[in-house]
């Protein structure tokens, strides 16, 4: 029995947008748990078939499913990524060091230690890279 195109498309979108592998239970949430496990498994099998001869593949890892590039393309992709790593300002590195050494720490504590205000941009970069986590207000 072929899964509905709507379900296959929803599962595909969820897998592409997720930062981690999605389990069958995660995928059931898409359909308010109305979808049977077998239907989702059929949708996953359909996607694996659809992506069989493409540059990406659907694989099962860590108890879930995710899309990844095929290993055969690794050398070409590595060449694309061989650029200089980002450079970080002294202020950003000082802020990160203070957080690492004194955690938990408030923005006011950081400013008191550094003697200057901490820019919103520095905090945004640290949070975006998930090097620090904001808690409280």
Describe this structure in words.
The chain is mostly helical. Helix content is 52%, strand content 9%. The protein has a two-stranded antiparallel ribbon. β1 and β2 form a beta hairpin. The longest helix is centred in the first third of the chain and has 14 residues.
List keywords for this structure.
Arc Repressor Mutant, subunit A; two-stranded antiparallel sheet; elongated
Number of helices: 7
Could you list the spans in which at least 5 consecutive residues all have pLDDT below 50? none
**Count of discrete domains:** 2
**Apparent shape:** elongated
Radius of gyration over all CA atoms, rounded: 22 Å
CATH H level of the largest domain: which superfamily? Answer: Winged helix-like DNA-binding domain superfamily/Winged helix DNA-binding domain
Order of helices and strands: HHHEEHHHH
Structure at a glance:
The protein is mainly α and 137 residues long. 52% of the residues lie in helices and 9% in strands. It starts with a helix and ends in a 9-residue tail after the last helix.
Fold topology:
Blueprint: H1 5-17, H2 24-29, H3 37-50, E1 56-61, E2 64-69, H4 74-81, H5 90-102, H6 107-114, H7 120-128
Antiparallel strand pairs: 1-2
